[in-house]
């Protein structure tokens, strides 16, 4: 009987890091095998400890850093490395942006076979205390002193034991322990798995997912916490349709876009851009690149609650918007009304399964703005091109799908990629948001 050869497992090894992978792990090679080492940077040499060994590659932790890159900085957060929320706090702000710009251009060239004629200046704003939307895990763990509130551990399903979070808006990030100790007083403390955070310019809402009905004493404790903290408290006993304020009413959340004299209202479970400062810069830049004229008809797809629509309405003759979620379209209509944007027509449609000739598609549009989810906009690229738009601005949250759609526009529909660049919507993470600008050539 033949005996299967047992592969030797390396417990530690030394590697020179030459690049960063898309997940922000340092990349090096040992005996021709790729080694992905967390918390390392190009130009560094490290002793690594494998945590996942495959035939083609290994994932590893850094055991000892022998030489540091000039771009290395001391992470601000005491929980960096334990918490899975951030991956790049050990890199300087400039290095983080350079990494994201390189990832974007690489995806455009490798996946889309296109290169921008011009690199847009990166959009950069606050790097700490910026995150106004988040889903926090909650777990009552008596052996760890009570309730834990925070993000999950890196590479594990457990809630990290955090005292604070440096990237959440401060009124939440500085008060994780306060929130946890309040939950400890509730009878349903073991039946709260998560909290949704939604921060407006005026107030911050916390949506508690509850798997058991709160007692009157629980509701009183939550109400007292709301009064003392200033949070708006919501409860969610079932799906998102069951979200309701703890009291009879709640203060409406909003954020403002001062350049366009716009105030946009939203619900705690609505999609809004994570970083308010970058969002303001993004809207400004998108409209500047779109070059909207007073006589223009503008088509906006994946339009949400009106983040671009109201600003566009300030500049264009007509704005036609399409969004797949009914609730967001209702909010978009309300936001257009309260902002006096009576030249916005909002449609509901599933943009991932559009009809052959959708009712919302104008015979001709001068400009088009796209802001799709991670899956991109492949299903509507043909409809966008059919409008004959002279200029398209595409805001993306995933470089690979942007690259795929860019190739379609350039190869199949007579557009050229005139500009592209990153927006640092998620500092200290590997997440990449970007903007691309297309012009019609035929």
Tell how many strands the DSSP assignment holds. Answer: 22
Our measurement of the CA-to-CA distance between the termini, rounded to an integer number of angstroms, reads 69 Å
In the CATH hierarchy, the architecture of the largest domain is 3-Layer(aba) Sandwich
Class of the largest domain in CATH? Alpha Beta
- Do you know the CATH topology of the largest domain? Rossmann fold
Written account of the structure:
There is one protein chain. With 442 residues, the protein is an alpha/beta fold. It folds into three domains: 1-72, Beta Barrel (OB fold (Dihydrolipoamide Acetyltransferase, E2P)), CATH 2.40.50; 96-126 and 271-440, Vaccinia Virus protein VP39 (Rossmann fold); 133-199 and 204-250, OB fold (Dihydrolipoamide Acetyltransferase, E2P) (Beta Barrel), CATH 2.40.50.1070. The chain contains nine helices and 22 strands. It has an eight-stranded mixed β-sheet, with helices on both faces. The longest helix has 18 residues, at 93-110. The protein is flat and about 65 Å long. Mean pLDDT is 96; it is low at 1-7.
């Amino acid at each position: 009987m033949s005996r299967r050869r047992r592969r030797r497992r390396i417990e530690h090894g030394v590697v020179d890091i030459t690049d960063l992978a898309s997940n922000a792990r340092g990349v090096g090679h040992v005996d021709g095998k790729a080694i992905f080492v967390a918390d390392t940077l190009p130009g560094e040499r490290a002793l690594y400890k494998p945590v996942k060994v495959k035939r083609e590659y290994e994932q590893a932790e850094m055991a000892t850093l022998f030489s540091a890159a000039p771009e290395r900085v001391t992470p601000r957060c005491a929980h960096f490395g334990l918490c899975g929320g951030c991956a790049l706090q050990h890199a300087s702000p400039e290095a983080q942006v350079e990494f994201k710009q390189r990832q974007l251009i690489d995806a455009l060239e490798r996946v889309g076979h296109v290169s921008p004629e011009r690199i847009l200046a990166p959009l950069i704003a606050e790097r700490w205390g910026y995150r106004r939307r988040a889903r926090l895990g909650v777990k009552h763990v008596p052996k760890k002193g009570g309730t834990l509130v925070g993000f999950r551990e890196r590479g594990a399903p457990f809630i990290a034991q955090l005292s604070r979070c440096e990237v959440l808006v401060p009124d939440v990030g500085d008060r994780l322990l306060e929130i946890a100790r309040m939950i400890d007083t509730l009878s349903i403390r073991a039946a709260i798995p998560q909290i949704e955070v939604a921060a407006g310019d005026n107030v911050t809402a916390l949506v508690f997912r509850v798997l058991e009905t709160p007692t009157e004493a629980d509701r009183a404790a939550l109400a007292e916490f709301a009064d003392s903290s200033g949070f708006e408290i919501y409860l969610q006993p079932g799906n998102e349709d069951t979200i309701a304020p703890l009291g009879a009413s709640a203060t409406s959340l909003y954020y403002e876009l001062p350049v366009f004299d716009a105030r946009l209202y939203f619900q705690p479970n609505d999609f809004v851009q994570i970083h308010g400062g970058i969002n303001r810069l993004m809207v400004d830049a998108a409209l500047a690149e779109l070059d909207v004229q007073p006589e223009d008809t503008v088509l906006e797809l994946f339009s949400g609650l009106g983040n671009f629509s109201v600003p566009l309405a300030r500049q264009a003759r007509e704005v036609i918007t399409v969004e797949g979620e009914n609730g967001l379209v209702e909010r978009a209509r309300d936001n257009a009304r309260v902002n006096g944007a009576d030249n916005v027509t909002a449609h509901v449609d599933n943009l991932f399964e559009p009809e052959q000739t959708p009712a919302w598609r104008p015979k001709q549009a001068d400009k088009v703005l796209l802001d799709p989810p991670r899956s991109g906009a492949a299903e509507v690229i043909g409809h966008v091109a059919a409008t004959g738009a002279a200029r398209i601005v595409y805001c993306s949250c995933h470089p690979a799908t942007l690259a795929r759609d860019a190739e379609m526009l350039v190869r199949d529909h007579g557009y050229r990629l005139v500009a592209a660049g990153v927006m640092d919507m998620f500092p200290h993470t590997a997440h990449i948001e970007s903007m691309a600008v297309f012009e019609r050539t035929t």
